[in-house]
Structure formats: C-alpha cells, structure tokens
Write a structure and sequence with these properties.
The protein has helices at about 1-35, 35-40, 55-60, 65-95, 100-115, 120-130, 135-160, 165-175, 180-190, 190-205, 210-215, 225, 240-265, and strands at about 230, 235. The protein has about 270 residues and is an all-alpha fold. Strand 1 (about 230) and strand 2 form a beta hairpin. The radius of gyration is 23 Å and the shape is globular.
Length: about 270
C-alpha cells in the first residue's frame, strides 16, 4: 500500500515538473511582454510590476507588425491549403494503387522533405530572381507548398493505409465511383488525420525562417524575420520581442483549441488496430 502511494506521488510530481518545464517559458514570455523596458532588463527578474501594453502598441504602430502578421497568415494558410489539396489525393493514390516503382516514388517524395533547405537555397534564389518572385507572397506560397507537399503525402499515406479498404469497395459496389469512395468514405474516416496534418503543416510554415529571410525584403517579410528588427547594436528590445512572440503564438493556440479533439485522434490514429 505504501509503495502504491509513493508511486502515485512520484507520478504526479513528475507530471507537475514536466508541465512547469513546458509552460514556464510561455508564462515568462507573456510577463515580459507586458513589462516596461526597465523591468524587462531587471536582474533578478521583477515579479511584481505595473503591467503595460506599450510594447504591443509600439510593434504595431512603429514597426508595422500588422503588415508582417498579414503576410505570415496569408502565406501559411494559402500554402497549407494548396499542399493539402495536392498532397491528400497523391497520398491516397500511393496507399491504394500498387504499381511498379511506387515505393521508389514514395521515397523520392520523402527525399524532398528530408533535404536540408539550405542546400537548395542558392538554386531557389536564382530561380526566383529570374521569375521575379523575390519579395512576393506568391513566391513564399510556392516554396512553402513545395517543401510541405512531401510531408502531407507521407502523413496522409499512413492514415489511408490504416483504413480498411473493404469500406471503399462496399461503397463502389453500391454505385460510388473511385472518386466518390475517396471523398465520401476515405476522407470522412481520415478526418482526424486531415486535421493533424493540416495544423502541423500550418505550424511548419508559420514558424519558417530561412526561406523567408533569404527570399523576402520588406514587402513580403514575415513575422519570424521581422523579429530581427528588435536586435540592435545597443541591445535587444526584450519587451518588443516577447510581444511579437505572443502575437505569433495566438493563431496556433486558437487553431489548436478548435480542432484539438481531431488533433489528438489524428496523432494516435492507427496505433491500435
């Protein structure tokens, strides 16, 4: 009995420590974002202070972060939509049609994702310069879609392979075409996978830095790149930087809150048959 209580206390203590480890940085970022510059730079940290929203007002008023936020939102959402629209049918085809060389094709698609982005940076830059896509939202959408498409294909391929093919065959016996079985049966059953894949794709694009840094200037600059504005020779503007970080976290938190049920089901989908 004593060992059981000790084990229960240990588990709860471990859960509490793990939760604090992951939540504490977010709390510190938020608290720093509502501190004055003096309080933000104070050491040891000041825990009792007069909160201010001056940092948020200045990043939108002086640094035009509304423009950068809009660029990030448009680029991330548009590239996610295109990647899902192209990758989901491709993943279904790889999962259902076994043709000669389909494994090699699947590995080739994966190789695009595992290639370090920096390895393709110079060719992509030259190509975009020739196509006049530098510092443009369509250019960002194109490159993000290119690198997110393999991820979508491989994620959704696993979800479709876990679905029993008998359900689709029964639908086709009842009069559905292959496309009808895909849209009415496979997509409905794979909804958790669609949700988890979409949000992960959005997160990868929303937080992407290297392509946005090299391929944009001022017109299409995204929020991860714009945060560099607060790193100066005179020091780092921690209040402004953390305020920008809070703004960057909002779409992800809101999106995850609304589809968390599907996200959890999607991440565990196919684990137990």
């Amino acid at each position: 009995m004593g060992q059981r209580i000790a084990w229960l206390v240990f588990k709860r203590l471990l859960i509490a420590i793990t939760t604090i480890f992951f939540v504490a940085p977010i709390i510190l970022i938020f608290l720093t974002s509502i501190k004055s510059r003096v309080d933000a730079l104070a050491f040891p940290p000041v825990w009792i202070f007069q909160p201010t929203f001056m940092n948020f007002e200045e990043i939108f008023g002086l640094y035009d972060f509304g423009h950068y936020f809009r660029n990030s939102l448009v680029a991330a959402s548009t590239s996610t939509i295109f990647a899902m629209a192209l990758g989901v049918p491709a993943a279904y085809s790889l999962a259902r049609y076994k043709f000669r060389g389909h494994s090699n094709l699947a590995f080739w698609i994966l190789s695009i994702r595992i290639t370090p982005p920096i390895a393709a940076m110079i060719p992509v830059f030259i190509l975009f310069r020739n196509l006049r896509l530098l510092d443009s939202i369509p250019g960002l959408v194109l490159i993000y879609c290119t690198f997110n498409l393999p991820f979508v294909v491989w994620m959704m391929r696993g979800f479709f392979e876990d679905l029993p093919i008998d359900l689709e065959e029964s639908a086709m016996v009842d009069g559905c075409s292959r496309f009808g079985a895909f849209t009415r049966v496979a997509l409905v059953l794979a909804a958790p996978g669609l949700a988890s894949t979409a949000i992960l794709t959005f997160l990868f694009t929303w937080n992407e830095f290297i392509f946005a840094l090299v391929l944009t200037g001022t017109t299409a600059r995204t929020m991860p790149v714009a945060v560099q504005l607060f790193m100066r020779e005179t020091g780092i503007l921690w209040g402004h930087m953390t305020a920008a970080a809070v703004i960057m976290m909002l779409p992800t938190v809101v999106l995850t809150f609304f589809i968390q049920r599907y996200l959890v089901r999607g991440l565990t989908f196919g684990a137990i048959k």
